[in-house]
Structures are given as structure tokens and as C-alpha cells.
Amino acid sequence: MEEGSRQSFQPTPEELAHRLVGYEAEGSRGPEALIAKAEKAFDRLHTTLSVFLGSKGFESLWARAMLLAQQTLQAEGLEEGTALFTSPERWADAAGTRDAAQAHIILHAQFASFLSLLFTFIGEEIGLRLIRPALPDIPPHEEDSPTEDARL
Amino acid sequence: MSKKQQVAIRLLSTGVPGLDEVLGGGLPEYSFNFIAGTPGAGKTTLIHQIMFTLATPKHPALYFTVMGEPPLKILRHQQQMDFFESSMVGDSIHFIDLSEIVLEQGLGAALARIVQQVEERNPALVIVDSFQAIVRAATLKDHELDLQSFIQRLAIHLTNWQATTFLVGEPLSNNAQNSPLRTVADSIIELSQNIHRNSVVRKLQVVKVRGQAPMPGLHTFRISGAGLQIFPRIPATATQKHRARPHNRMATGVAGLDDLIGGGFPGGDAVIVSGPTGAGKSLLATQFIAAGAAVGETGVIAVFEEHPEEYVRRASELGIDLAEMERQNMLKVIYIRPLDLSPDETLHEIQAAVALIGARRVVIDSMTGFELALAPTFREDFRESLYRMVVALTGTGVTVLLTMEIQQSYTDLRISAYLISFLADTIILLRYAEVAGELRRNLSVIKMRNSAHSKGFTLYEITAQGMVVRHTLEMQPGSGIGSSATRERSRQPIYPGLTEEETVLLQALIKLGKAPLEGLAQRVGLPDGPLLRTALDRLVSLSYAIRLHDEVGTLYQPMAQLME
Ligand SMILES: Nc1ncnc2c1ncn2[C@@H]1O[C@H](COP(=O)(O)OP(=O)(O)OP(=O)(O)O)[C@@H](O)[C@H]1O
Ligand SMILES: [Mg+2]
Question: Atom 25 in ligand 1: which residue has the minimum CA distance?
């Protein structure tokens, strides 16, 4: 792809993770609200990407991303206990053991790790296109146009 | 009865260079197609190339993956190709994985999923890659839906929904399980690859296309960053002999030569200039091109040499500036990269150059070099491909000059005398001969199909101005120069009513005694095609040969004796 289209709007995995499991409002309501939000985001990603990857394909990609996330979290000193966070079924149980700030860091790292792994395989441009249906709250003007307009 | 109204079948342009031609004009809309090929043959790439050409947001492509190459990898690999447009993914192209459904729920569920997606998205194209996985799944389990019914329902449904469909799988020949597909598919395209030492030979064959006539045979193709490019075999037209010939003469650029041949080479002739190394073949070829340029006739030179710069330099020594001619678009020089090219690909390149600048003169220097530049696997195809190209070019009035290295004697020809006779309208032989105790260069016109010509030997020299035919004095054969081989050659045996080619064929048949068509084709070095068959028909109709039918097939037996 030519330079121009790359430079325009391409959020990083971290920015995207932030949109998916944002902290602001939910943080003040404790880890449960945060977890609930993460579960919804996970479900949306799962539904969207399973079409393309198959649900087994999605799950194995997620599992790989969780392993990578744990390695990143070691740097934060959060590695023990993160095993509890590896799948959504366990998030709820794990929530009680963490404060909201910590839960947020862990969840954020997990989603960022997943997106970054996906982008490693297929590039961020296509990756973003594929997950777009799972990102309901991106204002359309922000995401779409600069790229396509520039090309026309 | 009134003339019946026909439904016009729209042909889709695939966007794959050469494929539409091979398909017979394009891909019929709403057709149900099978793309077969061995692993790595290029099936997935071909489909992507077509898909990126045809899909639109309103009528997208649905790409169903079933086991085989995982979807993540397909996207990872295919985005390397030039035709891949990231912006089309998710809008015009949707990837859908069917692996789990096929494995866990069976064919009925897979069909239901395809149908549901098709109804939802209204696609123009539907792809199932690989279909082989579905075939295998069908044999693994006792499904509620058998393969035959699955294919049948899929075909009907997708056609009704106005989708053009591609199923991707293994070659039919390797796989008896694919047989239901054979009958349902409207078209079957087979890709194959052969690895030969350092080169990969890829071939594509259109086994069938319902409702139109594809180009028969195996067509070579190449995969590069631009995707697939197919080099259709140039069809040989049986009407070569009867083509309308221009009556013009093309100045040769060699002083004195035009006088020997009635003013120049007849336009539209295939001319072979043969001779030993250093005789001046390339010189003559270069002068021929320059003479054309001087009168505004564009030319193409295909050089098969290790050092193309040398070629240009040698010409410049004669004051012929090939590079300048190229700049002025009077000339296109094609340097053939050695070893990995198929003859069809090379010939395609030559023809494209001819079309590009509207060339009237083409030089191939040399045929021997051309043949040697080819990978061994391609050599078998060489003669036929060359023959087809020469027929195609001369058929449009282009004059083609081919050089050929030979040793002093005729028997050492790599390319048989028979083929040359069929290929060439005019043959000029350059040789060395001893004249009055001195080794002198001499030239003879040993054949000229469309013109009267000098029959003797003529001395020529190579000067700073190039080749010059100095002596108009002709030496008649038998006057003491020339080997017995050349003398023999210049005395044509006479079989009344036969053309030179038919005579050559008859002589070959006489030497073989009795032979099937294939044996004869092999002997004369010609493809078993309309030309050979027409010539044989003539031999039979003039009672020079008879056709015998026995248990092994048809044989030809000569009814004439060798006359030399
Ligand atoms: N840029 C390129 N230049 C040359 N060859 C390439 C290039 N990219 C891919 N190829 C060749 O294309 C082939 C891959 O084609 P493709 O994946 O379409 O095959 P396939 O028939 O779908 O194989 P499979 O049966 O394994 O799915 C490989 O042989 C590879 O060498
Ligand atoms: Mg493939």
C-alpha cells in the first residue's frame, strides 16, 4: 500500500484496546462493571472474527495472545494471578481478587495483545477492516474517510 | 419458422492476463466452475486475482475457506500480490470459514450456511477453497446429505442466486471422488506445475467451458508479484499457404543481395539465414532491420545471446545505431533472459513488441540460441511454438528473418531440414568455399517460395559497411565449389504436382517405408496438425502414397521411389 493511506487514521492495538475496555466511567464503579464491558467486547470480537477464522480458529488465536499478554504483564509485576484472567469465563471470578485499576491494566493488555497478534498476521489495515463490526463506538468519520477519499 | 431469440450470455473479464483468451472470450456469468490443481499450483492466487477484479460492494465475493490453507494465512499471503486491495476486504470481499461446520455438522449444515450467507449478501462470486475438504468429509462420515446431492443443490442454488461460482480442488484425474463435479461443472480449469532442476514449468488447461470454445491444449503461465499471467499458445491456422500475400518487396539492406532475389524479400515471408559461426548472419539481420527503419518500417529484434551489449556494439561499428532507433520507437530489441522461460512466454513477448510498435520486420537471432536458452523441459515445445508464431506473424504480412547456426554440412542441423522447409519461404545459406585456392565467403539462395531467384553461388564480403555482395558473377553448382551436400540440395527431385513441402514429406515417407501419422510427424519435426494432414491428403489424392487401416490404426505407405 502506498504511504498516504497508511499514515491516515490507523489506531494502534493499544488505542483499540482502550476503546474496547475503556476505564473512565466503569472504573469508578469497581471491577465488575469493567469485566462486564470486557465480556461484551470479547463476545463482539468472537462473533465477528469467528465468521472469518472459525470459532476454534478464534479461540486458539486468543489463547496464544493471552500467553503473550502474560509475558508483557510480568513487566508490570502482575504476572501472578493473571492466569485467572485468561478466558472470559474466569474474568468474573478473578474480578473479586483485583481492584479496578489492576483489572483494567490486565484486561487492556489482553485485548491489546490479541489485536497486535492479529495485525502481525494480516496487517493492521485488513485487521481493522475485519474487526470493524466489533467496534461499535468508533465514530464513522474518524475511521473511514481519509483513506478512501485520498484514493479517489 | 422465425429466427429464435437467443439469450446473450455475458462473459466476465477475469482480469488475469491471457485467461479470457484461453477461455474463449471470458468467463460465462453465473457459471459453476471447478479449478483443479496440485498443491501450490496457484489455485488460490488465481481465484484472488479474479475476485479482486470482479467483486464490488453491491455484488461482493464470498470466499468460503474449508480446511486447507487457513484463512489467516491466505490473507497474509495474498496481500503480497499487486492486485490485492486492502480496502476491498470486508466491503467487496468477505471471508467465511466453513471448516468447523463441515467437520462437526456435516454437509447439510455447510450448505445451509452457504445459502444463508448468499441470501444475505447477494454475491456476484462465490468461492469454496478447498472443495476437496468437503469431498473428504463426505467420505469420512455418514452424512445426511451425500456429495452428489450437495454439489447438485449448491450448483442450482448459486445459479438461481445469480452467482458465478468457483470450487477449488485436486486434479480430476487424481481423484475419482470428484466425478460428480465433472458433470455438474460448467467449466473446468486445471493448473499443473512441474519442477525441473531450477525451473518451474506451470501450465494451465481449460478442460471444458459450456457454451463456448476454449483454446485447446496446455498453456504456460507464470506467477509473479502481479499474480498469474497466461501465455496462450498461438493457434496455427491451416490456411497459411493460402493467405493473402502482400506483393511488396522488403529491401534487405545488403548491397547487391536484392538483385539476386528479385528486389528484396517478399513481404510476409519467413526467411531463414543459415550458416556457420562468423559467416555474417547477425550482420545481415541487423542490416535488414536498419534498411526497414530507413524507409519507416519498424522492427523487432529478439536476441538470444549471453552478451546483448555486444550485439548493439557490433551494429554500431557498422554505423547502425540500434539504441537510437529504439529511442525513436522504430525498433524494439528484446533480450531473452536465459533458462527460465517457456517458448510461449518468449514468443508472447515478441508478439507484444510487434503489436506495440506495429513492426513490419522481425528478426530472431538465433533460433539455435533461442532453443538453447530454454529450460530442457521446454525444448520439446519449442519447434511447435516457433512454428505457430512464425505462421501468426507472417500471416499478418510481417516479414520474419530467423538466423540459424549450422556447421558446414547439412546433416548437423539441430532443427531438421524438414521443419525448415515447412517454416521458411526463403532460405539463404552462407558458407565458406575454396575459390582458386582461397577461402571465400559465398551465399546461395536455396529456396524462395514466392519468387524467382538466382540459383548459383555468389561471393560476398564483410566490410566496414557490413555485408556486401560484390560479385554478381554467379558460379553454377558443379563448377567446383560447394560440397556434394549442397549440390544435392540444389537439385530438387521432381514429383509432378507436389509443392516443395509435400515433396519433403514424401521423401520422409519413402525413407520410413510405412509409417503412422505420428511417426511421420516426428520424422519431419512438425506438429501433428492441419498442415501435415493437408499435405498427406494431397500425397494420397495424387497417388504418391496410400492410406492403410489395420488393427493398430492408420498407416501411410509411399507409392513412389526416391528420386535424387
Ligand atoms: N511473488 C511471487 N512470485 C513467484 N511465485 C509466487 C509468488 N507468490 C506466490 N508464488 C507461487 O505461487 C504458488 C502459490 O500459489 P497458491 O497458494 O495459489 O497455490 P494453491 O494451488 O492454492 O496451493 P494449495 O493447493 O497448497 O492451496 C506457489 O507455488 C508460489 O511459489
Ligand atoms: Mg490454495
Answer: B39
Q: Is the CB of B42 under 6 A from ligand 1?
A: yes
d(CA A114, ligand 1 centre) in Å = 28
Q: What is residue A28's predicted lDDT score, i.e. its pLDDT?
A: 62
Best mutation site among B75, B127, B194, B223 for ligand 1, i.e. most ligand atoms within 8 A of its Cβ? B223
Residues B322 and B211 in one domain: no
- Full residue range of the structural domain in which residue A70 is found: 13-138
Question: Smallest Cα–Cα separation from B187: which of B26, B16, B18?
Answer: B26
For the CA of B189, the nearest ligand: 1
**Residue in B76, B91, B94 nearest the CB of A122:** B76
Query: CA B190 → CA B74, B131, B168, B219, B340, distances in Å?
Result: 20, 14, 10, 10, 22
Task: Retrieve residue B445's grid coordinates.
Answer: 539462395
For residue A117, what is the nearest residue in chain B, using CA coordinates?
B72
Shared domain check, B200 and B82: yes
Residue B75: its chain A contacts at CB < 8 A?
A: 121-122, 126
Which tens digit of pLDDT belongs to each residue from B338-351?
556 677 888 888 88
Chain A within 8 Å of B71 (Cβ-Cβ)?
yes
Structural domain that includes position B399: 244-432
Q: What is the pLDDT of residues B288-307, one digit of tens each?
A: 999 999 999 999 999 887 67
Same structural domain, B508 and B422: no
Distance from the Cα of residue B210 to its chain's centroid: 24
B506 in the same domain as B426: no
- Per the domain annotation, does A75 fall within a domain? yes
Based on the domain organization, do B205 and B259 belong to the same domain?
A: no
- One domain, residues B412 and B309: yes
In a domain, residue B467? The reply is: no
How far is the C-alpha of A55 from the C-alpha of B184, rounded, in Å? 32
Which atom from ligand 1 is nearest to the alpha carbon of B193? Answer: 29
- Chain A CB contacts of B90 under 8 Å are 126, 129-130, 132
pLDDT band for position A101 (50/70/90)?
confident
The grid coordinates listed for B252 are: 534487405
Contact B95 A52 (CB under 8 A): yes
Q: From chain A, which residues contact B within 8 Å (Cβ)? A: 1, 5, 50-57, 61, 121-123, 125-126, 129-130, 132, 147-148, 151
In a domain, B481, yes or no: no
More confident residue, A44 or A140: A44
Same domain, B294 and B427: yes
- Give φ, ψ of B146 to 5 degrees: -85, 165
How far apart CA B22 and CA B350 sit, in angstroms, is 19
* pLDDT at residue B449, rounded to an integer: 77
Residue B359 has pLDDT above 90, yes or no: yes
Average pLDDT over residues B367-372: 80
H helices then E strands: how many in chain B? Answer: 20, 25
Interface A–B counts its CB contacts (< 8 A) at: 56
Q: Does B70 touch chain A if contact means CB atoms closer than 8 Å?
A: yes
Residue A6 within any structural domain of the chain: no
Query: What CATH number is given to the structural domain containing B355?
Result: 3.40.50.300
Average pLDDT, chain B: 83
CA distance B47 to A21: 38
Is residue B238 a part of any domain in this protein?
no
Q: pLDDT value at position B5?
A: 74
pLDDT tens digit string along B471-492? 644 444 444 443 333 333 334 4
Q: Average the pLDDT over each of A34-38, A131-135, B497-501 and give the range with the smallest value.
A: B497-501
Contacts 24+ apart (CB under 8 A), A83-89: A85/A110, A87/A62, A88/A38, A88/A39, A88/A42, A88/A43
- Work out how many domains chain A is built from and give that number: 1
Q: What integer is the mean pLDDT of A14-21?
A: 85
Co-location of B369 and B251 in the same domain: yes
Domain presence at residue B2: no
Our count of domains for chain B comes to 3
Task: Encode pLDDT of B506-522 as tens digits.
Answer: 888 888 888 888 888 87
Query: Which CATH number goes with the domain that contains B516?
Result: 1.10.10.10
